[in-house]
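Aim 2 progress. For NmrA-like domain-containing protein, the working sequence is reproduced below.
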Amino acid sequence: MSSSINSRNICVVTNGDSYPGYISSYRILCAMKKREDRFANECKLRVLCRDKESHRMRLLKEMGAEVVKVDYRNENKLREMMKDAAHVCLIPEHSRERVEEAQCVIMAAKHQGVEHISMHSIVGCDRASEHSSGEEQKYRHLAQYHQIEKMVKEQFGNNHCIVRICLFNQMFYFMAPQIESEGILALPVKEDAKWGCIDLNDWVNAIYNLARKEHEKRGRGIGSTGKKQLYQFTPQHVMSSKEIAREIGEGLGSQELRYKRISDDEMRQYLRKMREDERFREEPKHEKEPKWDQDGPWSYPIGRYLNDHLIELMLEYWRMANDGKQEIHTNDLKEVLETEPRSVRDYFHKNRNQFREFK
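Predicted structure tokens for this construct:
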């Protein structure tokens, strides 16, 4: 690292154990290795996690990240982790104490004078409070994300950015055994309910662009007043479940993929089964350089990501689609990427061989 790096050029990523936490950290480290831009040249990366001995955390350390195991309820320890940080990427935990842990991160960052915070959130979370009396549990996890958003805004004012995302296409790898062997896409959503999914590669490139631009503004002494603070990374057009199944089938070049609606409990049991499935337990080898326009070992989901809290969050997302509250589409992803995001059909066409590895 250059000796010109000042004490405020550390980027902290929380929840490195999660899918978005790992992928965003990996993307930054790849940029650092290639010295892609000023952000990559001048920043150091600190990744907070619960298990620093996991394969993927060890990999991030080998690539140059400072990887630290933390207790997210220990604000004093978190204050140490925020020392010298210019930016914090807050990725809420998939845990029972998500809100309390996020609050500790936010307050520790505030105490240490962190200049900017970004938050990973979920499309539709602001609609989670629109429920009838007695339905507080219906969108409990989504409501927690909206609660954390409010804390970020309150503590950091203009110096924050919230990025809401919908479902990643890569989560369909967990459905690949059923798609490939039975020709069925089975989800707990009405076939005519509309919702969105995006390519994780588009998302991580967009996230990197936002981080790079924020760093460049800071380097030029430009403040955050007046800049966009909420991005909703969605497809430009949402589709029904049946249309998504058709696009997946056409992209994979397979015979017509049938759509089947199943219950929440059937989906829950299926995902728990995939969590323990050998196809998603083995750690892929990182032999190829990432291209960031298609999937590979660096972007495959693994079973350990599917803890019960994430599964319930996914079920709430689809439940909201059933209630007609996920018909949300913006141009934010296209504008930040500065190119067209990949369509569902194109994504599955580009990655058809990768999907067949999981059949």
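The two ends are 43 Å apart (CA to CA). This observation will guide construct design in the next reporting period.
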